[in-house]
């Protein structure tokens, strides 16, 4: 099949919807998404925390992100990895669960933490150039005591 860019996006969206339908609407496991996972260490003033993060490295993986998922447990998330520092901007198109996003500098320092809401198309932008973005269930950073200036290791 030969799809243009918008045709590929529709095709992959359809596959994700069908995947959720086949799993009864449950969050797909990593074997179903095909994404590598890594345990990140978040160093806070109160101590260290672990986050099991799926890795979104390619353009396609970053474009899809957590779209069409119906759940995400505390302590889990998705790490978006970019090749170089840049101002990042995320939106919630086709994302069904509320998320919090941490924008992270090349050295692991958390620069910004923002909340994002399902289906909202308004972009949420980093305040400066960063290399990574970590999405987790909305409010998890606050519940876990994670703040700007904290460090994320094992990126």
């Amino acid at each position: 099949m030969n799809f243009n860019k918008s045709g590929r996006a529709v095709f992959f969206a359809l596959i994700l919807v069908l995947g959720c339908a086949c799993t009864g609407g449950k969050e797909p496991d990593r074997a179903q998404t095909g994404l590598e996972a890594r345990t990140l260490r978040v160093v806070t003033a109160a101590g260290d925390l672990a986050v099991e993060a799926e890795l979104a490295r390619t353009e396609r993986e970053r474009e899809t992100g957590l779209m069409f998922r119906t759940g995400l447990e505390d302590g889990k998330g998705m790490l978006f990895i970019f090749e170089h520092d840049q101002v990042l901007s995320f939106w919630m198109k086709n994302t069904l669960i509320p998320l919090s996003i941490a924008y992270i500098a090349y050295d692991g320092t958390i620069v910004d933490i923002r909340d994002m809401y399902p289906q909202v198309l308004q972009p949420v932008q980093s305040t400066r150039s960063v290399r990574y973005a970590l999405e987790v269930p909305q409010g998890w950073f606050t519940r876990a005591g994670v703040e700007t200036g904290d460090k994320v290791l094992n990126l």
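The domain at 5-153 is CATH 2.60.120.1140 (Jelly Rolls). DSSP finds four helices and nine strands in the chain.
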